[in-house]
Amino acid sequence: EISASFMYGAARFNAWIAACSFESKEEMAEAKEEAMEYFMKEYKLALEEHLDNHIENFDFSQNKS
């Protein structure tokens, strides 16, 4: 539930960030797909980086108890 809440909050914040860069709702509607692609690409890159880090350090983090 916490993860879903964070993702929802990040999506809401990023939508607001995007909205701040437009002069009109028409302009924003035209750029909607581009904005979505940008944020999804950036999220995917960050998630992949962090998953790779956890994979690389899995044994260390599991034996740290």
Question: Can you tag this structure with a few keywords?
Answer:
mainly alpha; elongated
Short synopsis of the structure:
The chain is mainly alpha-helical.
Give your account of this protein's structure.
With 65 residues, this protein is mainly alpha-helical. Helices cover 85% and strands 0% of the residues.
Task: Chart the SSEs and their pairings.
Layout: H1 2-19, H2 25-56, H3 58-62
Radius of gyration: 17 Å
Helix content: over 70%
Tell me which oligomeric state these chains represent. Answer: single chain
Query: Helix/strand-derived class?
Result: mainly alpha
Main sheet? none
Mass-distribution shape: elongated
Low-confidence stretches: none
> What order do the SSEs take from the amino end to the carboxyl end, as H and E?
HHH
Cα separation of the termini: 25 Å
Strand content: under 5%
